[in-house]
Amino acid sequence: MTRSEERGVRKEGSEAATIVRPELVEGPSADHHDFVLETSEISKHFGAVRAVDRLSISIPRTGMTSIVGPNGSGKSTLVNLLSGTLPLDGGIVIIDGVGLRVVRAHETPEHGITRTFQEVRLFDQISVWDNIMVVLTERRTFRALMERGKQSHREKAQNILENVGMWEKRDSLAMDLSYGQRKLLEIGRAMALDVHTYLFDEPFAGLFPQMLEQVKDIMRLMRDEGRSIIFISHNMDIVRELTDHLIVLDSGRLLAEGDVTEVLASDEVIQAYLGT
Predict the structure, then answer these.
(1) Could you tell me which residues come within 8 angstroms of residue 175 by beta carbon, excluding any fewer than 6 positions away?
(2) What secondary structure letter does DSSP report for 9?
(3) Given Cys at both, which of 12, 23, 199, 235 links 102, Cβ 3.0 to 4.6 Å?
(4) Which of 272, 232, 265 is nearest to 64 (CA)?
(5) Using CA atoms, how far apart are residues 232 and 272, in angstroms rounded to an integer?
């Protein structure tokens, strides 16, 4: 279901448009207070392959949103576009009511968004503690500049490591951690950015049951703090358990979007995605 008409996206030069930089070409959508992140007709092509094809979605301001679909449906490409890891070929990403034709990865935390990767990315040669402190001390927001006191950063680092269950490993080098522990540390680094929206690409992949439950608990904690959590998963049991808002993709296009129970019960999704 496409919502570009419903959102009433305003074009450049209209009375209500907000232009901050040349790449900020749209003003707030009509119902942007309900949605933290939206897209309007975004596309990404790799040669003749349309990985994401004129896709329009709306992600609620709070709660958990999952993105599902068969392999090759465009899930990871969508996350890469939302986070600025890949450039848009067309369309607009709307963050907190402000539209962007260009999304730059290094600027997304300033827009309130960060992401994790399927392949964990850490500073392997330094400790768990320092991996968190690097993020806290390198933030470039005004609020961060007002909180440069070392004690403030140390308290935040301890709180984050306790929340992700890595406090006891704080002195270990990142390179010495298990795969699951590396995932936890990457989530902790994302938490250190203190943004309103988190994109998780396959956060449960490859985890043993105990670690999987730990990651679910961390995501619930973040949700309960008022964050918007967006994740990709092939595990439909986890999707049913955690998800409030579900987005189903098929061949780069939106197949269905809405309440998880209603979407999974729809004939269109059952026939096209679940295969029954």
Answers:
(1) 124, 125
(2) P
(3) 23
(4) 232
(5) 18
Helix axes of 128-138 and 150-163: crossing angle, nearest 10 degrees: 130
Which of the four pLDDT bands, split at 50, 70 and 90, describes residue 50?
very high
| pLDDT tens, residue by residue, 70-118 | 888 999 999 999 999 999 999 999 998 889 999 988 889 889 999 988 7
Of 49, 80, 97, 2, the closest CA to residue 252 belongs to 49
Tell how strand 90-95 and strand 245-250 pair up: unpaired
Q: Do 44 and 86 meet the contact criterion of CB atoms below 8 Å apart?
A: yes
CA nearest to 95, candidates 107, 79, 113: 113
Tokens of 8: 């009433």
Helix H or strand E segment including 217: helix 209-224
Q: What is the pTM of this model?
A: 0.83
* H or E element that contains 94: strand 90-95
- What is the Cα Rg of the chain in Å? 19
| Residue 137, Cβ density class (10 Å: 0-12 exposed, 13-18 middle, ≥19 buried) | middle
Q: How far apart are CA 73 and CA 134, in angstroms?
A: 35
The CA–CA distances, whole Å, from 13 to 16, 18, 25, 99 equal 8, 9, 9, 13
